[in-house]
Amino acid sequence: MPEIKVTPLGAGQDVGRSCILVSIAGKNVMLDCGMHMGYNDDRRFPDFSYITQNGRLTDFLDCVIISHFHLDHCGALPYFSEMVGYDGPIYMTHPTKAICPILLEDYRKITVDKKGETNFFTSQMIKDCMKKVVAVHLHQTVQVDEELEIKAYYAGHVLGAAMFQIKVGCESVVYTGDYNMTPDRHLGAAWIDKCRPDLLITESTYATTIRDSKRCRERDFLKKVHETVERGGKVLIPVFALGRAQELCILLETFWERMNLKAPIYFSTGLTEKANHYYKLFITWTNQKIRKTFVQRNMFEFKHIKAFDRAFADNPGPMVVFATPGMLHAGQSLQIFRKWAGNEKNMVIMPGYCVQGTVGHKILSGQRKLEMEGRQILEVKMQVEYMSFSAHADAKGIMQLIRQAEPRNVLLVHGEAKKMEFLKQKIEQEFHVNCYMPANGETTTIFTNPSIPVDISLGLLKRETAIGLLPDAKKPKLMHGTLIMKDNSFRLVSPEQALKELGLAEHQLRFTCRVHIQDPRKEHETVLRVYNHLKGVLKDYSVQHLPDGSITVESILIQATAHSEDQGTKVLLVSWTYQVGILEDIHFNQF
Amino acid sequence: MKLYCLSGHPTLPCNVLKFKSTTIMLDCGLDMTSTLNFLPLPLVQSPRLSKLPGLVLKDGSTFLDKELKECSGHVFVDSVPEFCLPETELLDLSTVDVILISNYHCMMALPYITEYTGFTGTVYATEPTVQIGRLLMEELVNSIERVPKAQSASTWKNKEVQRLLPAPLKDAVEVSMWRKCYTMPEVNAALSKIQLVGYSQKIELFGAVQVTPLSSGYALGSSNWIIQSHYEKVSYVSGSSLLTTHPQPMDQASLKNSDVLILTGLTQIPTANPDGMVGEFCSNLAMTVRNGGNVLVPCYPSGVIYDLLECLYQYIDSAGLSNVPFYFISPVANSSLEFSQIFAEWLCHNKQTKVYLPEPPFPHAELIQTNKLKHYPSIHGDFSNDFKQPCVIFTGHPSLRFGDVVHFMELWGKSSLNTVIFTEPDFSYLDALAPYQPLAMKCVYCPIDTRLNFIQVSKLLKEVQPLHVVCPEQYTQPPPSQSHRTDLMIDCQPPPMSYRRAEVLTLPYKRRYEKIEIMPELADSLVPLEIKPGISLATVSAMLHTKDNKHVLQLPPKPPQPPTSKKRKRVSDDVPECKPLKPLLSGSIPVDQFVQTLEKHGFSDVKVEDTAKGHIVLLQEAETLIQIEEDSTHIICDNDEPLRVKLRDLVHEGRKVKLCCSDAH
């Protein structure tokens, strides 16, 4: 039986290092190629040696698909393609293709220049890797090879994020990447049609959370920022340069405008302006409202938000600073955090998910004494707030997507095992489909039961749809045909045509049946009587009285002869070829 | 398969294809050349135009002098300009299921179709097509509505009256189909019926047909369309270009293996080389400005203007034009410039790469930033304050009948220092200029039409090899003005089928197969028999379900219990008709084996007689006779159904045995 095999190399019962192998109808596809923010050793990248022990990856994989530009989905790509070695096609959307190399370069700089690691991918490798990328449009059907096709759907989450359908023949898998089922200030909601995949591989970051309304969260966020600034405190918002940052900037910008606030808002890194530029150029990927009004007012041109200089951190008085990276694991956000952590007037707002092992994760889990490099202990007195602005679907959203796509099986990745367990039960209960949650390196096999497409001759199809007393196209009908299997082609034709094509003669099977009737009249009178009776009974059939004295009902022949011994008995010879019969309707016993 | 041809204009097509059970409209172009018969709509009162004398007919009658005016020997209708609609009577347009749009120039009649004909279907177009199409429509409506005209001329349209008029009005065709411009609410209603699509997106229509837009290389978001079922493929080629300008290159490979290729939208100026024309455009522009004159470029607000601005961007400094102001005046100028920058995915490779940097793909962003290019919604307001001469003005409409261009024609027409440069190929420049004659201003004709020329077409056709080509009749003969140029027509084998307005073509094709799916349970139950090496047959008897034009074969329901009494029940209507299966029988039946089989099944008194053609098998006790011949078997017995069934099955068994034997060889 045909099967689909799925093995997560990363993101199996975990968040980070997304990398999922899918084998479908003989094709091997790798979904995402991410890094893990929680590790600095070998574990930060997926274990690609799992894919094939001997032989090149290019020979084994038919293609690689990257769902969006977040590093936990694309961070290992240059390592994979340039250092391990893969020369096949890599597919991603245009915005992802534009932004991905910038984040990779950023990541490389932090790792190599700041942390001094060697044996890491180089700038040139990022460039070479990007040369292998093929950009795809939304909803475009990309023919990877003759059998394998992929199609991108809008996923929300971040600019250019996409869900991908992978299809071979009539078997298909949908991989969601990260997605968001509610539109936010700058992006639209994920959407997919009722494509009924054999398997839906969905993220499950917020598997157990049902988040309150977006408006409430936004109000909360603004209130907290406002209060802190009012009492002269500083607000640190660790973000990734692209994504949540833009949403929160739009939010603060409009709030500052409305409330006429004066406290400065800064955005760290020089990436911002560049980032905003991407949003302007790829505005067709943002939500409807921004797209509609962009000619009059481009939402990504900010008046109140200015570039941050390192020296500003020591300025007295209130301020709001967006700083990268988002999980406080390195870089400017961590530096500012160390400066401000000691003052209880200040506040850090974590607007997104933090991976285990990062400072962000530690303070969110309540840790107030942090061991920094050099055994230094940092005491956190500032207020720590968590606000889920990260654009993942919550439990409700995941269920909604399943309802939209109607998959036959569901597989959970990109989440924590415990939460997955809960969601898995819920999915199985509600949709009565199998739900899987393999750990990294664990293979899940799903059996598919595809129907077989064949070519039916139009003549046969038309004949079968035209037959029947009720010409009702919707009513199922029984049809007879002969399937010709030659090489790999299947053709369904009428039995006669099949015989003809193969040069075979039909073997006719004929039956003749003798029916005795008591009738003293002359033979031709008997015939006439039978004829009249049949005409009366079989109104829907053609009944004919032939000159030679026989009667035909469609292809059935009836002849009458006198019994050789008893002239009062007539013998009716009823003769027909073996085929679907009308005989059932004729009742000679009524004579 | 039928093609209804609703427009005679080869570059503004409107055809309806009936294919399988769907009715698909291919483009709805609006022929605007009719407006050339009208007087221009000036933005400010023009003494010259209002003083034009009314028409006096040959017989001296003057009853048309309010409607028709004479200017330099030409007659013009003094009324709101009207456009020539596609045919609306050739078929019931409310039956159109979908409309496929190939580029923004070919959708200008859309509101007439969707809002006036009872159309209830869906329109498919790419996002740039819709956005820029909206801008073109907005500009059109705006430039006509802001110059309200009290009078509307209709007397001249009367057939009897039209006969008396001088040419070209006398010969104007389909005047009954000429209509005033639509309104913005109608535009919005029409555009709301559009569903956005991307290149190479497969769109299912009612399960019967699949349509796919392909990049055509002509304009932002311009597409050709593939309309196909599993066995037939129709390619609709409309407005395509192989030149590298700003749009994504044309996808030619996907047009291969078409049964029918409908070819429209070739270049309107087959003798002009677009590159040469751009060069001439630049040099004429520079010369005029250097001599202190102004340059007027009548143009559409999107399309070639982007390429012209890009050329000028490179040319301005080297030609010493850096201090000359460039103005772009259109109610949609700003939108057009902004929109051009956000369609990265629809642009050529070079421009896409720029977006990755990230930089705006078109250099006109820089022209605007450096104040070299300024754009205004109209000549009123800010423009009148900023206006400095000499200058270069891009503005519409290329017909010179409405829009801000009318103002500048009146303003600059009297001075020979000024130049009007025609770049749009849609209107004859002499006809466009007619109501402004006499004119001192210089006129330069540099039509830039990047669409396919005949050399490119024949190369394309050789490459993609369609079985049949269908095209407007204009493409099957040399242009009327150059009848010796037999190279300026389509040359292919077999020769193209041509159409003209209001014609219905029956397209040649023969469908022989349809796709059907066999459900796995049914597939499992099939018993294939290898008849010849590599060829197997299986008899299929199954329930045919047809839904949404998709056919599926399922296992038939369990046969009803054979009736116990001789009295038979009528098959009730709600149970699907279920008739017994007729297995495939072929070949002859080996009589010895058959007899053995009979004996094995309890017939002890089998007697065999040889006949001329075969054998007769007698079952004495059962009073039954079986004639076996090479290609037939005849069973003669009394009315004993169980016996017949048993014999029938044994005959089949005998045949199967034979087939198995032949397999063994």
Automatic annotation (TrEMBL), chain A:
A Pfam family of this chain: RMMBL
GO CC list: cytoplasm; nucleus
UniProt keyword Ribonucleoprotein present: no
GO molecular function: hydrolase activity; metal ion binding
InterPro entries hit by this protein: Beta_Casp, INTS11-like_MBL-fold, IntS11_C, MBL, Metallo-B-lactamas, RibonucZ/Hydroxyglut_hydro, RMMBL
Matches recorded under SUPFAM superfamilies: Metallo-hydrolase/oxidoreductase
Entry's localization field: Cytoplasm; Nucleus
Domain Beta-Casp: 245-363
SMART domains linked: Beta-Casp, Lactamase_B
Keyword set, alphabetical order: Cytoplasm, Hydrolase, Metal-binding, Nucleus, Zinc
Annotated ranges, domain Metallo-beta-lactamase: 16-233
Cofactor field: Zn(2+)
Family: Belongs to the metallo-beta-lactamase superfamily. RNA-metabolizing metallo-beta-lactamase-like family. INTS11 subfamily.
This protein's name: Integrator complex subunit 11
TrEMBL record, chain B:
One Gene Ontology biological process: RNA polymerase II transcription initiation surveillance
GO cellular component, one term: integrator complex
CDD domains according to UniProt: Int9-like_MBL-fold
InterPro entries documented for this protein: Beta_Casp, Integrator_9su, IntS9-like_C, Metallo-B-lactamas, RibonucZ/Hydroxyglut_hydro
Stretch list, region Disordered: 550-576
Subcellular location per the Swiss-Prot or TrEMBL entry: Cytoplasm; Nucleus
Pfam families in the cross-refs: Beta-Casp, IntS9_C, Lactamase_B_6
Sequence ranges assigned to domain Beta-Casp in this UniProt record: 305-433
Keywords from the named record: Cytoplasm, Nucleus
SMART domains xref list: Beta-Casp
Similarity comment: Belongs to the metallo-beta-lactamase superfamily. RNA-metabolizing metallo-beta-lactamase-like family. INTS9 subfamily.
Protein name in the entry: Integrator complex subunit 9
Native species: Gallus gallus (Chicken)
Upper lineage: Eukaryota, Metazoa, Chordata, Craniata, Vertebrata
